[in-house]
Design brief:
Blueprint (H helix, E strand, L loop, with lengths): L1 E4 L3 H16 L5 E4 L6 H17 L3 E2 H13 L3 H18 L3 H15 L3 H6 L27 H12 L4 H6 L2 H4 L3 H12 L7 H7 L2 H13 L5 H37 L2 H19 L1
Parallel strand pairs: 1-2
Antiparallel strand pairs: 2-3
Helix pairs in contact: 1-3, 1-4, 3-4, 5-12, 7-10, 11-12, 13-14
Amino acid sequence: MILLFDGDQAGLKAAMRSVPLFLSEQVTARISVLPETHDPDTFVREFGREGLHKHLKSAMPLPEFVFDKLVAQYGSSVAGKAQIVAELQELIKAIGDQHLQRTLFVSHFAKKLDLPPQQLLAGVILPQPATTQAAKPAVAQGKGEAQLPMKQRQLLEFLVAYPEHLSAFLEAGLEEIIMNQFGLAILHLLKRQTDFSGGPEQLLELATGPERSFISRLLISTPSHPEEMREQMAREMLRWLSSTSLKAKKERLMKQISEAQHARNEQLLMELMTQKIQMDEALHS
């Protein structure tokens, strides 16, 4: 859904007033504002239907629209941020008890304001202590996010949004198939998140660099699925994961069997062949 408003002050005020209403009803929409001298009738008369369609393509998500307007109005000084934080409280309240949506909203805009999420939630800006923090150990990165296979990306995206499923995914063999260094970095962050009650914003606090950008973009774009749908998605992913991890183990086992044959190690070969039989049975069960 795209909401189109006049570009004068009355239109901008109407656009700003509409945002809490849509957030409270969990309606996904974007906002497009016409140039200041136009209303829909005059714009279509001057630019035609194609011009209107082109203009609508630049429509912004509701929260992003509000944030940009607040920054333009108040600036990014400490005083300006305080005003923005105060204005955002109405939007946070409008989200209501939708925990995931509220967490994503707060995490995203806290990052934009360079504030801890707790301060944005509380509606205050506290002075930042001038402390020197020890550098966190960096997680090795390879070719990055673009090289992460699609299915592995889907598994990690699901776990970022719903980290309470991590233990089941690990038991099903997640670590057997994540080989990409970027994927390993995300998995490392997930394993560090020991308390899931803090929500996805806690994971953002742990992340840095490309991993933080990946998680932030993902959390903003992830819809809040009903519990029944989440469980169904988890079951389907776990079935695929169990099968794929077994196949990965079998490939490594076949390599070990070949090496044992080459070394003429009969005892090791017998042990490996027994493992292969058990694995074949598991794959076909």
